[in-house]
Amino acid sequence: MQEYYYELVVKPEENLDFFSSLLLEVTSSAIEEKEGSIIVRSEDELDDIAWIVKEAAKKLDIKVDISFEKKENEDWINKYKSSIKPVKISSFYIRPEWIDEEKDFTNIIINPALAFGSGHHESTSSCIELIDRYVKENQTVLDVGTGSGILAICAAKKGAKVDICDTDELAVESAKENFQLNSVKYENAWVGSANNATKSYDIVIANIIADIIIMINRDLKKAVNESGYLILSGIIDKYFDKVKDKFSDFELVEHIEKGEWHTLMLQKRE
Fold first, then answer.
1. Residue 24: what are its φ and ψ, rounded to 5°?
2. Are 158 and 141 in contact (CB under 8 A)?
3. Which residues are bridge partners to 11 per DSSP?
4. Which of 81, 93, 123, 183 is most deeply buried (CB count within 10 A of its CB)?
5. Residues 88-125: pLDDT tens digits?
6. Domains along the chain?
7. C-alpha to C-alpha distance for 153 and 131, rounded to whole angstroms
8. Rg from Cα positions in the chain
9. In the chain, where does DSSP find H-type helix?
């Protein structure tokens, strides 16, 4: 063990999930989400990682506070593990594999250091609530921008037949590993988006950046079968009206608001 390690703290003004995904794509170091910040710890210097974050923030026009610190080394992996808390969402219990299961819940294992989503974020938890209420056995579900696969895994645990996709190849591989970890199966998986779907679905889920939801709205709508549903999330206050207007041809079934985050349950009009 080296005498020192480096800690990079990234605190974006918005789109925390995007920066978490970006960091997981560009580094294999341990990553922790805490109080609206993303903490990266490594025995290697993290200047290059910070530069990538700054460049992404410029392109997205998002303010991001970045800080560095050199610290004396310690057993921070176990310290990190002890800081991760499981979360109960509806009938689901989301936990890392080192925490015991809850017998009265449907257990979902997601190891946060390796995943793009662990259930703690408002948009993720809202989607899980909707999945628990609306997904039925043998329904077909497409999870667009699957990340860790947590939403698709929840749907599979409800007995649905799920497909997953993400534009990030690492995300797709992470999701596949998490499906195996949770002893559930996906039907199809691909690197790409909803436009690569070869069929329509009972429910399409897109917990991604609002700009992307707007950009691919036609592909999302096309992927929904007659009277099917769309779950849209990752939408902050300033984009809510834009997204809602873009999907005005769908009926609003339910709207969940947590802090600045909005999640919409929409149904295709016959």
1. -65, -25
2. no
3. 65
4. 123
5. 999 999 998 889 999 999 999 987 654 334 557 889 99
6. 4-76 (3.30.70.270), 122-268 (3.40.50.150)
7. 10
8. 18
9. 16-26, 47-60, 76-83, 122-134, 150-157, 169-181, 210-215, 217-222, 237-246
